[in-house]
Amino acid sequence: MKKFLFSAANSTVAKEQLNLPATKDKIRHAFPHENSCYQYEWIDDVTVPLLSDAFRSPTQTIVAFQFSGHGSAKQLSFMRPAAWHNQKINARSLAEFFGLQPSLTLVVFDSCNSVGLARACIDAGVPIAIGTNHSLQDAASLVFNQYFWGGIVAGRSISHAFEEAKQLYITENNRFLDQPSWELIVNPNKPDAAEHAWDFEDCRQQPQQMNHQQSIMNVQNTKVAINEVKGDFTFNESDT
Hints:
By secondary structure, the protein is of the alpha/beta class.
């Protein structure tokens, strides 16, 4: 079973709250309710343990991941486990974690100034990543998510869905200069990734089962240290 994994974490400061429920609704409506090949999952209030657990599954292959929330080129703002406040997660360790996931084709950062994080993922080996060049408003995020994921589910390639989503945003809002500057980055070692498309309509063939070796690899990869940006303290999500 191939999975599209979405995660979100809001700020615990009231004036910084994002309209993540609306983002969730836009994405949820883009995906089929039932499909024998693909599964949609959304993690609210994502934490490091929740993210790690999602990638541990030996029966589900995560092919695309998106984070929605506050972030920058250097960090993402997750929730801290067992506490209602945010935890700033180091960008490099996240990128290394994603780069070690063998089935992951696409990573999207639906957050402000996240193109640096997208580039870090490419450097770590992710085939294709999307980020933004500056601040991202709720309205822009909603439109982009609606059209981009709608295009993906319709069977368009990643690059086609991306360019179409940007153009539809411009058309719908009748402006260009004010639009968030999304950037799609393709790994130069995997140039065909931009033309990758998932067929949601034709699920007559059974999805391939993950072999035992790949299952073990996925579990081992979750032992990569994920560092918290807070002095010299390191949050190490590890089984050992």
